[in-house]
């Protein structure tokens, strides 16, 4: 098992995952943007298929996230935990409910993408690209209703779901570079997110750039 460390090792955050952006890209972006450091435990395919780790994971899957002695699985639960910890969950319960709804919407879009990547890339890509605007339009409308798209996906402060949405949008743009062109608010949103100093330096880091987007080399 290869261990790589962040700039300092004093925090209790540890991400255990395969050498991909995948399900950990959003939590890494959140941590970097919030000025946090963390440790990476990178699990190879051999270690995963032959070692004992899988049987210790609650659902037999990675990522695993440690915050001191708190051990979590499920990427969206990890994001929610970080959302509560760093006040990235809106200003009240109503905001939190909307942010949860948006998180589930992003998850649906992510699952469509992941299913294409891992199960039907060659045969399904053209149709996926054709249907993509109907998904993106939903988020364009959400942005329109929130300050005419001048801010975040909900309210006027960043929330954990912004990192997840931003991550999926980056992946979709890799798949179809023109997919955001007909959506000015989403395009502006991506521009603003990637200009945030903490995110910008993370996106320019070797760690980010050298890590494959997905586990099967497709993107
Ligand atoms: C795969 O699906 O990376 N976890 C994945 N796969 C290994 O034995 N709902 C949760 C969540 O949100 C989904 C977890 C997710 O956290 S992520 C997992 O654990 C298993 O099920 C995508 C990813 N893929 C890289 C990878 C996994 C299998 C094939 C490629 C490890 C690397 C290579 C083989 C095993 Fe591999």
Characteristic terms for this protein:
219 residues, alpha+beta, Glutaredoxin, Glutathione S-transferase Yfyf (Class Pi), Chain A, domain 2, 2 domains, globular, disordered N terminus, binds S-[N-(ferrocenylmethyl)carbamoylmethyl]-glutathione
Task: Report on this structure.
The protein is α+β, with helices and mostly antiparallel strands and 219 residues long. It has 10 helices and 5 strands. It has a 5-stranded mixed sheet with strand order 1-3-2-4-5, with helices on one face. Strand 4 and strand 5 form a beta hairpin. The structure holds S-[N-(ferrocenylmethyl)carbamoylmethyl]-glutathione (6SG). S-[N-(ferrocenylmethyl)carbamoylmethyl]-glutathione (6SG) binds next to helix 2 and helix 4. The site of S-[N-(ferrocenylmethyl)carbamoylmethyl]-glutathione has 14 residues, from helix 2 and helix 4.
**Major sheet details:** 5 strands, mixed
**Percent helix range:** 55-70%
Q: Low-confidence stretches at least 5 residues in length (pLDDT < 50)?
A: 3-10
Order of helices and strands: EEHEHHEEHHHHHHH
> How many individual helices?
10
Bound molecules: S-[N-(ferrocenylmethyl)carbamoylmethyl]-glutathione
**How many strand units?**
5
Walk across the major sheet and give the strand order. 1-3-2-4-5
CATH architecture of the largest domain: Up-down Bundle
Average predicted local confidence, pLDDT: 95
Count of the domains = 2
Based on secondary structure, the structural category is: alpha+beta
Shape: globular
Straight-line N-to-C gap: 26 Å
Strand content bin: 5-15%
The CATH topology label of the largest domain is Glutathione S-transferase Yfyf (Class Pi), Chain A, domain 2
CATH class of the largest domain: Mainly Alpha
Provide the gyration radius in Å: 17 Å
